[in-house]
Request: fold
Amino acid sequence: MTVPIEMGHTTAGAPASLDLEELLATRLLVQGNSGSGKSHLLRRLLEQSAPWVQQAIIDPEGDFVELADRFGHLVIDAADHTERGLQVAGERARIHRVSTVLNLEGVDAENQMRRAAAFLGGLFEAARDHWYPMLVVVDEAQLFAPAVAGEVSDEARKLSLGAMTNLMCRGRKRGLAGVIATQRLAKLAKNVAAEASNFLMGRTFLDIDMARAADLLGMERRQADAFRDLERGQFMALGPALSRRPLGLRIGPTDTRPRNATPRLMPLPEAAPADARAIILAAPPSETTRPARRPPPDVLDQLMAAKAAAPEVQSEADGESLSAEQLAERRERMDRILRAVLAEPDAAFRASSVLYQEFVVRTRIEGLGSAVPDMGDFRRMLTHARAGLSLDLADDGTWKDVAVRGSILPEDMQGVFMMIARAAKEGWPCPGDAAIARAYGSRSLRRAQRLLTYIEEQGLIVCQLDGAGRRTVTLVELAWATAPGDPNAAEDFAAA
Reply:
């Protein structure tokens, strides 16, 4: 399917469009000196494509935060979060398919690089099941992929450059389509710029930048001077998503405006020198009067709030109204279908996407095609089913609280946590390593042991061994505890 994104008009007056499907399969490089309309171009692209594709914007100056009010993007203020927190936020943004703006305004250059690298790393390292198409826009890309070392540490530069290289070189297979914008090609690392297949070149004045822009567009060197004559908002376009030949275009208007608008001339205020001296040289405020910095917001809460604010899919297909008894019957049938899918040989070791396909087929055969959940809801159902929870029991308030606690874990570990929680609540023996590995989709007992260690490190459980080598797991805060169980038990906990 071709999805044309209207970018404006060509110099001849014809509509100029960008093929979004083609862009997602390739990458885009935008160059233009300060004031050339580069950020305006990115804003136009983001606004026009927002209804079609998830977006992530690396925003060093806070120019794109206004997208939140108009298009529902989640704004993440990088100054309020650690690098680890931003990495997890990037991964969760992909899982929940929430468009985000990483606002790096007010963060020094080195920490901008570190935090952007962490967030991009979270996007890049998301599990294969979450490789949905995503437009990743990086403004002022020369800050995050510099051609030469600057005043920042080598470690920060390597982290940032590595994340940008992954985005542009390896991101396509993961559904990440990089769109990078820079003031000067000469300042951008060549291995990052070289991966772009589409180009939009705006006004520039330095010979070296004009020559590189002409080379990328396949223009002759004597034509490079044309980049000096471009007006604000005019760009030369080339690439499979734009045009097979260099094409001049003018970017159309946008619905939102940057917070940092271009300063305009205005008369100076009239003030007597004595008044100005009294105002400017007044004693600085006391340190104690500074407002306390607000605590860092919880990124997961923000993501879930943004998810809830997005248009929800109606649970009743085609306006169908169901009674409480009919809904209960439908849930019971769905529960039965899911148990049948999981009862298949090696179901525990198959990818959730494969199980979902099997579940959809069986659901349609049962005449429940209109009630098929989406992939995200199915994963939650799968997590509960692997823990031995029915759909009705999973909706109980207590188990919802448990699910919220476990949401800090990677999604493929949450089923293990729920299974242990169920054993603890019921007072059953602690599941053995074989049962834990199976719930995780692995046959490795060592991996099961590492899983428990990881969950304990997150502060969710406490593991103890008694003198006989039996293991007890206690859930933190809930104070639920399993009965002692043999870690080497061969029986399958799911059968208990």
The radius of gyration is 27 Å. The longest strand covers residues 243-251. The chain has two domains: 4-253, 322-495. Residues 4-253 form a domain with the Rossmann fold fold (CATH 3.40.50.300).
